[in-house]
Write a structure and sequence with these properties.
The chain is of the alpha/beta class and 1897 residues long. It has 74 helices and 44 strands. The radius of gyration is 39 Å and the shape is globular. The two termini are 61 Å apart. 48% of the residues are buried. Residues 22-37, 1417-1479, 1508-1513, 1785-1794, 1854-1867 and 1877-1897 have low confidence and may be disordered.
Length: 1897
């Protein structure tokens, strides 16, 4: 039995619950009672539950909702679908009726007026709202629209209605065709493996909000079975017990976990009034078997105690769910025992690692098996159908298709009437099925046996107390036998100690939820009355977490909260309920003993000379260790440590190193013993180091029982004990074993990896040992044949999803559903085995392993064609035959194989004979010895062994590995699985929906993740255990304590301010009402909570009401209507109170809060605590070394100490994750943002050029592989490219060669490129602190770099990479001196980073790469790199303008040199704020702006723009006239070929009905040449006209072949060339060439001076030019608008001045140029370039289109009229678009985002001065900088622009006609522009309400 939880999505995520409800001939009307429920078909209606119902109130027109009342579908839609009051529709209708009946107002400004419908609707929505309404994305995607069109087209073709339901298979085929077509159109190639699945998922995705949680309560199978077969009155009692248990758990959840979050980042957790929930009880499973269960849908909407509706805090709900599940189990058992007298007993599960299940005594197991088997049959049928679907359609089914397949499988396997059925019909069917199993009389007997169990109290109690019943104290036994539930205190304490001991076996630290769950499990085994169960569980839990049994992990915060900041139970609002961590004295003692043992140095040590001899002997035997292996051997042998840790990542050569270590130890007189957590691992260790090996459990069991294993007697001071796979050993067992070994004098070496599979017991101590005393690390990977795969495994180990780029790029990721993925893994494994490769097949669960084993067995038997003979039942439910591979699952020392070996868990065997008595004769697959397994052992502990779980595979190595994953695995499991194969490792991801109707409510069904999404989630799921000591250490670091203190301080001030304001009568409701009157929807803005908090603080500081403060902020400047977040804009305008906060960005404590002594003491103490922790962080940073510096800070090592410390304080206080390598984390707003920008400016000044590399590499990527820019890992690749460049390597050449290898995958393209490059720049080495490795050649670096820089290299984590690279270079024939000299010279050690040298922080990595590249053999594919690619369109004017391109992340302008020291001085320890005085005033900014405006006006007078050019330049030479005639003849020829070709169809499909002058160039080589030659054209003329070209053989061929051809006309209509579109069936990188091909430069045509479509403006001189990207876009615009708009497009280049000169002829104030480029990266760049070309002459407009839609697409999808309307209605100033682009730039660099406002100001500066004020307001609204800062930026930019403009015009003045002298009118216009800047307009706002409370000044 269990309670499970998953999220419910808003929208229609709830509909599965309501769709199952019984309707019969009526809807959800009044219930007809129990009889109606019994006879009606379908499930019972849902009912309302939860105390939160009281908070809904009874709005007008509605009745109160009470617990137990029936739920309607409309109520579910309102609450769970939209996030509104359940009776929202009724409330709104009532308000509308009331408004209609209300007479008009009789006085005031609204006298004689009624409320408008809009006002009524707004008020009604406000009343029915429960906070924010859910964001529901219900708009159909383009893919769904195209599918619907295709469905309708098929129906029309067949003469059916357009909406006729097509057969499922036909719909699936059409979906595949549509998806493939759209994929090809988008990517110009067919989809690869898995790509169509991912494309469909993303094209169909419609993410919506979380509406709540579906908690499903299900009893164990025996309860449902008894309910199904017992008489009806018994069934009613079972249902009642189930319902009571559900309601009990819900009430407990309301008391314990129903919280919500307030404050910044939800730091404050507060009480709620309860939960809003609905309960739907269902009676059967998908298979139709009895399955009584209840879905409790808990709404995400909860009300605070002050009546505000917020979101339920899901963190606590999830964490408490196991305890809730166990509470349900216990209450259900107690209820059934009380009602029916049944008893429960534990039933073991097939998987021994799982807890036994408590089933009802007397219910026959065979009946449960019968009702479980059909689910397996359905799943098997569904898997077959899914496999057929995938084979047919080449993709996995969508959620809808998966449901259809599941329904087909259900129908195909059931023999009963299909649902819905009444309860009576169900019971009749279940009785018949039970009779088939039990017989007619057996049903009654089974019921009778269940209701009259013969279970005694001692049997019931069993081992609940950890000892037999007879050994319990007498008072406890008496109390249990009495059954009253009143246990003595001694018994409660005993139970508490047992709970702690049980929990601590599985984890080193725990929370109260873990203890409570265990207490529930223990108490339900006791004869306790139902009424006493809760009290006993509470008593046991309280005792267990008391200091008598547990120890709190981490110190409590030193500043306790006042009463105002505590929850109703007295706990702090800043402590998440139930989050307190505990451990036990035993755990801490065990961890402490291991750490103390590791510090002991009194052990046996082998001499260095003896170790070197052992290493030489290894070389002589053909086994040479790499430097890391040799260092580990030296370290472990010579250290003299009693306990030492060795970290060995997967594939690092651990076995080889241990073998040499054992040899070194034994040849000097010592003995070696191996221990391991599992018997199989121990056996493997025995074979590897040829010594006695055993399990660690054998030792600890012997210590506990006094029967030690035989080898224990040999342990003495000469003994070395190697504990392999130490990470899988439990801390308590490990500590006990090590203590005994050390007591006998032995030395112990722990070998393992804390990132591989961990112990199922409490563990995590390896990290403690590494952190406190260090570890010897095997850093270089040697297992993998591909260095790139080796490096990718290290990324997997670290949880870095960038690793997936390697696996996607190398076709290692395969997608399917649960059945097809297992099938795919099996077939690949089978192919490998048949080809002679050693392959392994892994799965995460025993169930999947069994399925794979069954398949392998069946194929083996079929393949041999031999009768398998007699079989025997195995423990996994299969049968074993002679020839099968099996695995044993239990250590049994009685089943000996040799004198020292026995049958072990995990041993793999082949069956040689099935014996008559059921025993098996088996032979071991590795050592080939045989043994007979007795029949009982075979039946209980033997399984088929073709496949294995991942846990069973740790430690093995094969050629290839195929692993199936379900998406719920951990990073550690995936890492182990994907590192078993030497040559390749494949993962098969079950990502397709299951089709189970129960899953319909889940977000993963409605918006399923892709296979790569699931793998990314797996990598984020870190299941590595953390020890209690590590937890204490992490919680007590200064950074962690500063984060908690700063968060509390930042939130406490506004929280207390709100309370003080409420007490004074200034209610939150008043502020909310005024905010909505000011701007409707303001209170639903994302930043409303932040604005609300800042208003409260500002109100206290100024003595005003919050509404008054808001009024002033709203009226101070113009409010931009289209601001992304209006609340954030207003928050940025609020004043910052003066004072000295503990950190510069934190608020100052308002004086009003200090009037309360308790609050004053708290806030002052908290501020002091923040300051102290900040000081401690400074101290910690000062002590950083290269070895201890965090990864994110390595690039900052060369910064001044104070600045580096300031960054560390910022990251700690604002909780920037250590994995975020951005110096300052995500961009912040408000005071935090102001300080962040200042700090970023200081970093930029101290690291000149650090952030410009993103711009440089973005340019390169746009030229050679624009797809890289769409990868979230592009910034990471840029970092690596920059590091390569700084190392002196040819980064661009490496990049281009990697891209040229093969087509890039659609997912992770940047990551894929990195792994291709990574293959060629050195071995895969784990970054580790390896300063102890000092090869003899280390002196070379000291000589060349100097001692100080060399030491920095030696202590750098990348030093191990240098060592590995030099080692491999020496193997390749280099001497260390040669290769290091070459590498050091390439880093330019004599230059600073600014001069081109390598920074010290990058030096080790640079040397490793340089050495690796230098030592590369000539066979390396990168040794002969091609010349850099140079696209024909990469001319100078197309390259982005670094100053004016909004899509570029702009280069931060460093502060002037003389300002930098001032800023640095402002950051002493601790950092002090410079205060508002450092900022310019608004008056200063306005004055500067006025000056800039006057300068601009005078500049236009003194240096006027050049006059308009001549509109049309006529043809001048006979040659031009002749070539024009040839072009005309070619156009006629092309046009004649068009009909009936693909080009005509394509044109009609793209622009249906458009009158486009087009043609078709045939596919042959010389069609046009032959045609024009026949009409007198010479070869010279054809080449000169660009119509033909000469081949290398000297023959002439057509310039255009198999292309749609469009003529290019000059402004007067002369055809000057052609643009030709490639056949769409030809992809990129094919002989067909680029998609568009233009005429080459000729005497008539130059792409830099010609615009496609310009000639149409001659026919329509008053039309508006629309600048687009492509010729079809231009044709679409022109054809759609019939002369209102004319589309023009550059041809293969960006807009040039020559283009603009042609357009200027047609530009007037009424017809500005509109820019309508594509909404992608290239389109945005083109728009920016157009702005700077056009702004000199007029203010261009901008037409925005939906993502991935260009004008031609819009024409195709919506028609010409819609395109014309779109052009007219979606136009705005291009300047506004560029400003917004800067503000929303998605960049990973805080110091770049810092200058968004600066770069936006460049755009504004080019505008006429009268447009500056509104544009400045837009900058403030979008970038959230202070108004004075934005104004000054614009003033500075305007001044610079004016000077540049003057210089440009002066340069061109000599070629322009003489300008007329300035006129008075012009001078007057300049002065008017000047005065206009002094009249900044504001938007009037309503007067704020006055407070009725006392003043707070």
């Amino acid at each position: 039995m269990t309670a499970s939880i998953h999220k419910l999505t808003a929208g229609d995520g709830y509909t599965y619950l309501t769709s199952q409800v019984a309707r019969g001939d009526r809807t959800h009307g009044k219930s007809g009672g129990l009889d109606a429920y019994y006879t009606e078909q379908g499930e019972t209606p849902g009912v309302w539950l939860g105390r939160g119902l009281e908070g809904l109130g009874t709005p007008a027109g509605t009745a109160a909702l009470v617990a137990g009342s029936q739920v309607t579908e409309g109520q579910m839609l309102a609450l769970f679908g939209e996030g509104r009051h359940p009776n929202a529709d009724a409330i709104e209708r009532a308000m509308v009726r009331a408004a209609a009946a209300t007479p008009p107002a009789t006085r005031g400004r609204n006298a004689g007026k009624r409320l408008t419908p809009e006002q009524v609707q707004r008020r009604a929505l406000a009343v029915s709202a429960l906070g924010r309404r859910y964001a529901v994305n219900d708009a159909p995607s383009e893919f769904r629209v195209e599918c619907a069109k295709a469905f309708a087209a098929v129906n029309e073709r067949d003469g059916l209605p357009r909406d006729w339901a097509l057969p499922a298979d036909q719909r699936a085929r059409i979906r595949t065709e549509v998806a493939t077509r759209m994929f090809v159109a988008e990517h110009s190639r067919t989809p690869g493996a898995g790509e169509l699945d991912r494309w469909i998922i993303k094209a169909s995705a419609a993410p919506t909000a979380v509406a709540g949680y579906d908690i499903t309560f299900s009893p164990v199978k025996s309860v449902s079975a008894l309910w199904a077969i017992a008489p009806r009155h018994i069934g009613v009692q079972i249902e009642a017990a189930h319902d009571d248990a559900v309601r009990d758990v819900l009430a407990w959840l309301e008391d314990q976990v129903a919280f919500t979050r307030e404050g910044a980042q939800g730091v404050r957790q507060v009480n709620t009034t309860g939960l809003l929930a609905t309960a739907f009880t269902h009676r059967d499973s998908r298979a139709g078997d009895p399955d009584l269960h209840t879905h409790v849908a808990v709404s995400n909407k909860v009300a605070t105690r002050d009546g505000r509706w917020l979101a339920l805090d899901g963190r606590v709900v999830y964490r408490a769910m196991v305890a809730a599940s166990e509470r349900y189990n216990t209450r259900l058992e107690a209820g059934l025992v009380a009602r029916l007298g049944v008893a429960f007993t534990e039933t073991p599960q097939p998987d021994v690692r799982r807890r036994a299940v408590r089933e009802v005594v007397g219910v026959p197991p065979e009946l449960l098996t019968r009702w479980s088997s059909r689910r397996a049959a359905i799943e098997s049928a569904r898997a077959d159908l899914a496999a057929t679907f995938m084979a047919t359609h080449g993709r996995t089914p969508t959620p809808v298709e998966a449901i259809k397949l599941a329904q087909q499988a259900n129908l195909a396997t059931r023999q009963r009437k299909h649902e819905p059925r009444s309860h009576a019909e169900q019971r009749q069917q279940w009785a018949a099925e039970a009779a088939e199993v039990l017989g007619a009389a057996g049903i009654g007997a089974a019921v009778q046996a269940a209701l009259t169990p013969a279970v005694t109290v001692p049997t019931m109690v069993g081992g609940t107390f950890g000892v037999p019943f007879d050994e319990l104290p007498e008072p406890t036994r008496r109390a249990l036998l009495a059954g009253a539930g009143d246990l003595p205190d001694q018994a409660v304490e005993h139970l508490a100690s047992v709970c702690v001991a049980t929990v601590s076996q599985g984890r080193s630290r725990w929370q109260v939820w873990d203890i409570r769950a265990e207490a529930e499990r223990r108490v339900r085994c006791l004869p306790v009355p139902a009424a006493r169960v809760t009290a006993l569980v509470d008593a046991v839990t309280s005792a267990a977490v008391s200091d008598r049994h547990s120890i709190r992990v981490g110190d409590p915060d030193p500043v306790p909260e006042p009463a105002a900041l505590r929850r109703v139970d007295g706990s702090s609002v800043y402590e998440v309920a139930g989050s307190r961590m505990f451990t036990s004295p035993a755990i801490l003692a065990a961890e402490g003993s291991l750490i103390a043992a590791a510090a002991r140095l009194d052990g046996r040590a082998v001499t260095s000379a003896d170790v070197e001899i052992a290493l030489l002997e290894s070389v002589a035997n053909g086994l040479t260790l790499n430097p890391a292996q040799a260092h580990m051997v030296r370290d472990l042998a010579c250290s003299g440590r009693r306990l030492q840790l060795a970290i060995a990542p997967a594939g690092s050569g651990k076995t080889t190193a241990m073998r040499v270590l054992a040899a070194a130890w034994t040849t000097t007189g010592g003995t070696v013993i191996g221990l391991a957590p599992t018997a199989v691992a121990a056996a493997g260790l025995r074979g590897e180091i040829n010594t006695t090996s055993d399990t660690l459990a054998a030792l600890t069991h012997g210590l506990a029982t006094g029967t030690l294993p035989g080898w224990a007697a040999t342990v003495d001071a000469s003994t070395l004990v190697i504990v392999d796979e130490a990470g899988m050993a439990g801390t308590l067992d490990l500590a006990a074993g090590v203590a005994w070994l050390l007591e006998r004098g032995a030395s112990v070496r722990l070998v393992g990896d804390d990132q591989q599979l961990a112990s199922i017991s409490a563990g995590g101590v390896l990290r403690d040992l590494a952190a406190t005393v260090g570890a010897s690390t095997l850093s270089e990977l040697v297992r993998f044949s591909d260095p790139a795969e080796a490096a990718a495994t290290l990324a997997l180990r670290a949880g870095d999803a960038m690793a997936l780029g390697f696996y996607v790029d190398n076709d290692r990721v395969h997608v399917g559903d649960a059945g097809t993925t297992a099938d795919g893994a099996y077939l690949a494994w089978q192919n490998d085995r048949q080809s002679g490769r050693d392959a392994v097949m892994l799965a995460p669960t025993r169930e999947t392993v069994t399925a794979l084993n069954t398949r392998a067995q069946a194929d083996r038997i079929t393949g041999t064609g031999i009768d398998p003979g007699t079989g025997v039942d195995l423990s996994d439910g299969t049968r074993g035959y002679a020839g099968d591979i099996v695995v044993t699952r239990l250590n049994d020392r009685r089943l000996t194989v040799t004198a020292t070996d026995f049958v072990k868990n995990g041993d793999r065997w082949v069956i040689e004979a099935v014996n008559p008595d059921g025993s098996l004769t088996v032979r071991h697959l590795r050592h080939r010895r045989a043994v007979t397994l007795p029949a009982p052992y075979v039946h209980a502990s033997t399984e088929l062994g073709y496949a294995s779980t991942v846990h069973g595979a740790q430690g093995i190595t094969a050629d290839a590995c195929h692993v199936v994953v379900a998406g719920t695995e951990s990073r550690q499991l995936l890492y182990v699985a994907m590192t078993r194969g030497r040559h390749d490792n494949h993962v098969y991801v079950s990502a397709a929906p299951s089709g189970d109707l129960h899953d319909l409510t889940r977000p993963a069904t409605l918006t399923p993740p892709t296979d790569l999404d699931m793998l990314t989630s797996i990598l984020a799921r870190d299941d590595a255990q953390q020890s209690a000591s590590s937890a204490v250490r992490d919680l007590s670091t200064p950074a962690a304590r500063l984060q908690r203190a700063a968060a509390r301080y930042r939130d406490a001030i506004p929280a207390l301010a709100h309370q003080l304001l409420e007490e004074s009568g200034q209610t939150d409701a008043t502020l909310t009402a005024y905010a909505e009157s000011l701007r409707p929807g303001l209170t639903t803005s994302p930043a409303w909570a932040t604005l609300r908090d800042r208003l409260a603080v500002a109100a206290l500081d100024s003595g005003q009401t919050p509404a008054q403060v808001l009024h002033e902020a709203a009226t101070a400047q113009l409010l931009v209507d289209d601001a992304e977040d209006l609340a954030a804009v207003l928050a940025s305008r609020l004043p910052t109170p003066a004072g000295s906060p503990p950190l510069p960005w934190l608020p100052t404590i308002p004086a009003a809060l200090l009037q309360r002594p308790e609050w004053a003491a708290y806030l002052h103490a908290l501020a002091e605590h923040v300051t102290t922790m900040s000081d401690d962080v400074h101290t910690q940073v000062a002590a950083w070394t290269t070895d201890t510096t965090p990864t994110w800070a390595r690039s900052l090592m060369d910064l001044p100490d104070q600045l580096r410390a300031a960054v560390a304080v910022w990251r700690a206080a604002t909780d920037v994750p250590a994995t975020d390598h951005r110096f300052l984390g995500e961009t912040r707003r408000g005071p935090e943002g102001t300080y962040q920008r200042r700090l970023a400016g200081a970093i930029t000044a101290a690291l000149p050029g650090h952030s410009t590399h993103l711009q440089v590499w973005t340019t390169v990527a746009e030229q050679i592989a624009p797809a890289l820019l769409d990868d979230s890992y592009w910034p990471v690749l840029v970092d690596q490219l920059d590091a390569l460049s700084r190392a002196g390597l040819p980064a661009r050449d490496l990049l281009e060669a990697a891209i040229a290898e093969k087509a890039l995958p659609l997912e992770f393209p940047a990551a894929s490129v990195w792994w291709r490059m990574r293959r060629h720049i050195g071995p895969a080495v784990l970054d580790a602190a390896s300063s102890a490795i000092r090869p003899a050649w280390s002196r070379v670096l000291v000589d060349q770099l100097g001692p100080a820089r060399a030491e920095r290299v030696f202590t750098d984590p990348a030093w191990s990479s240098v060592v590995a690279a030099v080692h491999r270079a020496t193997v390749a024939g280099w001497s260390p001196e040669q290769v290091l000299s070459l590498a050091v010279d390439a880093t330019h050690p004599d230059l600073t980073p600014a001069e081109g040298g390598t920074a010290t922080s990058d030096l080790a990595r640079a040397l490793a790469w340089r050495v690796s590249i230098a030592a590369t053999t000539p066979t390396d594919p990168y040794a002969d790199l091609p010349a850099p690619l140079e696209p024909d369109w990469a001319d100078e004017e197309y390259l982005p303008d670094l100053d004016h391109d909004p899509d570029w992340t702009p280069t931060p302008h460093p502060a002037p040199v003389d300002e930098i020291p001032d800023f640095v001085d402002e950051i002493p320890a601790p950092v002090e704020d410079t205060g508002p005085a450092a900022l310019p005033t608004m008056a200063d900014a306005d004055a500067a702006l006025n000056v800039a405006a006057v300068e601009r006006a005078l500049n236009d007078i003194l240096y006027p723009p050049a006059p308009r050019p001549q509109a049309v330049i006529p043809l001048e030479s006979p040659e031009q006239i002749r070539l024009a005639a040839l072009n005309r003849a070619a156009a006629d020829y092309y046009a004649g070929n068009l009909p009936g070709t693909w080009a005509a169809d394509y044109l009609q499909q793209r622009l249906p009905g458009a009158p486009v002058a087009a043609g078709y160039a045939p596919a042959g080589w010389t069609h046009l040449v032959d045609h024009l030659r026949a009409h007198g054209a010479s070869d010279t003329e054809l080449v000169a006209a660009g119509l033909a070209r000469t081949t290398s053989r000297g023959t002439l061929i057509d310039a255009f072949r198999d292309r749609l051809v469009l003529p290019i006309n000059s402004p007067d209509g002369t055809i000057v060339g052609f643009v030709a579109r490639r056949n769409p069936t030809a992809g990129d990188n094919t002989p067909a060439g680029p998609k568009y091909l233009n005429t080459t430069t000729t005497p008539l045509y130059d792409k830099g001076t010609t615009l496609y479509g310009i000639h149409h403006l001659k026919q329509h001189p008053h039309a508006t030019p629309v600048l687009v990207e492509g010729p079809l876009d231009a044709e679409a615009v022109t054809a759609a608008s019939h002369g209102r708009y004319i589309g023009v497009a550059p041809l293969g280049t960006a807009l040039t001045d020559a283009h603009v000169s042609q357009l200027r002829t047609h530009i007037t104030p009424d017809t500005p140029v509109l820019v309508a480029t594509d909404p992608d990266n290239a389109g945005r760049k083109a728009a920016a370039n157009a702005y700077w070309r056009l702004i000199e002459h007029h203010t261009p407009g901008y037409v925005s289109f939906p993502e991935d839609i260009d004008p031609a697409d819009y024409y195709t999808n919506h028609g010409p009229d819609a395109l014309t309307t779109h052009l007219a209605t979606h136009t705005r100033p291009l300047a506004n678009a560029l400003i917004d682009r800067y503000a929303t730039s998605d960049t990973a660099w805080a110091q770049v985002q810092l200058h968004a406002a600066h770069n936006a100001a460049q755009v504004v500066a080019a505008l006429p001065p009268e447009q500056w004020p509104a544009a400045i307001d837009r900058i403030v609204a979008t970038t959230h900088v202070l108004p004075e800062v934005a104004t000054l930026e614009v003033a500075d930019a305007a001044t610079n622009h004016t000077y540049e403009q003057r210089h440009h015009r002066a340069q061109h003045a000599s070629t322009a006609p003489a300008a007329e002298p300035p006129q008075e009118a012009t001078i007057d216009a300049a002065m008017r522009a000047y005065r206009a800047l002094q009249r900044r307009t504001t938007t009037p706002a309503a007067e704020p309400p006055q407070t009725s409370g006392p003043s707070l000044t």
